[in-house]
Amino acid sequence: CLQAGFMQQALVALILLAPMAATMGVQVVSFRMAFFSDALGHSAFTGMAIGTLVGAVVEPLWCAVAFALVFALLFTWVRRHAHLASDTVIGVFSSTAVALGIFIATLDGGSFTKFNALLIGDILSVETAKIGLLALILLLVVVLWLTTG
User: Fold this and answer.
1) For residues 93 and 43, is the Cβ–Cβ distance under 8 A?
2) Which of 116, 109, 145 is nearest to 22 (CA)?
3) Rounded to an integer, what distance in angstroms lies between the CA atom of residue 137 and that of residue 144?
4) For residue 140, pLDDT beyond 90
5) Are the CB atoms for 134 and 11 separated by under 8 Å?
């Protein structure tokens, strides 16, 4: 099965993703941020919906990353300035991101299931450029882990 090029690329992508997910998963649990990472994932859906709404000008994946970054910074600001528990702020942000994402995704009257391929992905269709990006992200994760841990 590894004679097919797409299977080889999928295997390389998995080899890069596994240590990245393990390293980040340990950090998420250690810092007790599991609920925050869930909310951040929900914000990515909203970012993809915004990216799709603005059209082919930008790739929806980069909109998801940008929106998640803005989401994280706004959450941190609100958490520091409000006298609320972190879980409360995370819950409000998470539900707001999901509601906004569903609203934007269904503006044309359609279903938001059209985003499944973007949100879940397909490891068998990973491109060579994305493998390079995964390698770069893994390197960044390892460097950050070594310098902060």
Assistant:
1) yes
2) 145
3) 10
4) yes
5) no
Q: Quick check: 6 pLDDT over 80?
A: yes
Query: What is the length of the chain?
Result: 149
Nearest to 135 by CA among 1, 10, 3, 15: 15
Asked if residues 40 and 71 have their Cβ atoms less than 8 Å apart, the reply is yes
- How many CB atoms lie under 10 A from the CB of residue 148? 7
- pTM of the complete model: 0.68
Would you give the end-to-end CA distance of the chain in angstroms? 39
Tokens of 98: 């999901």
- Min mean pLDDT across 29-38, 54-63, 83-92, 95-104 is at 54-63
Tokens matching residue 4:
């097919």
State CA 93 to chain mean position distance.
15
H or E element that contains 21 = helix 5-30
Within 55-115, where are the H helices?
Answer: 60-81, 86-105
